[in-house]
Amino acid sequence: MKKSMLLWAALRFSVLVTTNMMAQAVPDGGLILPGVGIAGLKLGSAPFAFEAVFSKRPGNSNSAPSGTVGEGCPDKVYYWNDLEVHPSKVDAYFKGDEVSPLSVFGPRFSLSNGLMTGETEQRVERAYPHGRNSVLLYSASKVNGGRDVHYWVDKEAGIAFELDWWQNKKQRFVGNIDIFPRGSDYHPEGCTSPPQQWEKLN
Q: Which one of 11, 63, 113, 187 is separated from 69 by 20 to 30 angstroms, measured CA to CA?
């Protein structure tokens, strides 16, 4: 399983490498706080707060226009990643000058209950029994196993787990973990852009 997970992580991070995002300094701590933030960076923070926690190396850019387009969508996304030892990344989606949501991946980040990326769908559902299952239609790609991505969303806790299909294991495992304001509606990357559609399954 470890070998499969490493291969899967390598595939996901090949996308980041091709967009020329370089490894950057590692923040202190990596605790995910549902509905609050990650590693000391809080939802609602300004871009300078992201840069203070996830410092970049001199000369490297760590921001780009958001990939989601439409009314109410984030207008900018800030990136931090470490590709050198334990592949990990943080994406901060900004609407104006406030971050929401935050998305993390990799072994540097975990919840207080020990959950992190690579966990099984079943363990996530046991840990967050009040969550609901949703699917991002037309999101299938080779990176996520060739099937539409599912999400386990606990709206009241303010956390969502991206569940990617692993063809060799015939089940779903956690990809990204997203943090968003408690009680608010969740959408991957802050909103849904056509042709993709967000659909609740239960």
A: 11
Cα dihedral 188, 189, 191, 194 in deg (nearest 10):
-90
Q: Before 101, cis peptide (omega within 30)?
A: yes
Q: How many CB atoms lie within 10 A of CB 19?
A: 8
What distance in Å separates the CA atoms of residue 164 and residue 155, rounded to the nearest whole number? 20
Q: What is the mean pLDDT of residues 172-184?
A: 97
pLDDT at residue 143, rounded to an integer:
82
Distance separating alpha carbons of residues 136 and 70, to the nearest angstrom: 16
Residue 61 amino acid letter:
S
| % of residues, the chain, pLDDT over 90 | 63
pLDDT of residue 1: 39
Name the nearest CA neighbour of 86 among 16, 26, 37: 26
Separation CA 93–CA 77 (nearest Å): 4
What is the identity of the amino acid at 157?
A
Please tell me whether residue 158 adopts helix, strand or coil conformation. Answer: coil
**Domain segments of the chain as ranges:** 2-200
Is 57 exposed, middle or buried (CB count within 10 Å of its CB: 0-12, 13-18, 19+)? exposed
- Residues 158 and 136: their CA atoms lie apart, in Å, by 18
Mean pLDDT of 46-52: 91
Whether cis (ω within 30° of 0) applies to the bond prior to 34 is no
